[in-house]
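PT: before anyone asks, these are the final sequences, not the draft ones from last week. 322 residues across everything. Please model them as a single complex and drop the result in this thread when it's through.
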Amino acid sequence: MKPARSGCPINAAVEAFGDSWSLLVLRDVMFGNRLYFRELLAGSEEGIASNVLADRLKRLVAAGLLTRDGAGPGRRAAYKLTEASIQLVPVFAQLGDWGIRHRPTTERLRMRAELLTAGGSELWTDLMTELRVIHLDAPALQFERQSVIQRLANVYAAASE
Amino acid sequence: MKPARSGCPINAAVEAFGDSWSLLVLRDVMFGNRLYFRELLAGSEEGIASNVLADRLKRLVAAGLLTRDGAGPGRRAAYKLTEASIQLVPVFAQLGDWGIRHRPTTERLRMRAELLTAGGSELWTDLMTELRVIHLDAPALQFERQSVIQRLANVYAAASE
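LR: through. Structure below.
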């Protein structure tokens, strides 16, 4: 990583993941549960190019926002979130909330952001807990509630029908 | 504006202001109360170049995130926030909070973000109310509390001494 342009926390955050494609890749790992290069490429709503995706994955690993593991003969590498990128949930939730209110969006792609907005910080905390199980191998918990990840997948599937 | 790459609210938000320099310019108008080109150029902690600043101001006006007015013979143009960009306060607050926790930052530039984090959503709402007075000519209110903008300026001045 190059030295930061300034020690401002907002600048530091933007330098870490503020490139648009990096942010969209993180979004797809986080909310789309896509852990593999091919899934990320084929599923990209914005049509990310294969060389751009490869470059951004490398950068995100270097920045400590993704880990890459499991690659081997006949095995694809899996990209997973780190504690730092899991803590971006509130940033994504606020970005999505702003996008819904101030930009034209499509219903199919809006449903998950609406769920995040409606659930507020309590739901974001629950989501981060679940992401730690998937991405950081945190011990699985018995949830008394329906999984947030499952709810996000459900509203997306319903809207895509 | 080009058509959006997708109708996803996060993508739509990122396309509107996700370019790093655009975001830093908005930050300086919002938290530094810098309304003029020269102030924005001279005060930039990240050393924005004059042509980049001019380009991003134009883009932000086109995107409905800044207004430009008051220019005339012997009068400089003032850039002001719009309702849409004032509603970015929670996004900036979450970005700053993440930056403090996960990136190296300098104390002088960290103080304002710490105040925003500590104050939570109640303080963000108060700040938005005050920004509407400055930027949207909303009627000034008699605050029973100390102005958030003044508190931000105070902690920054104290840290800069």
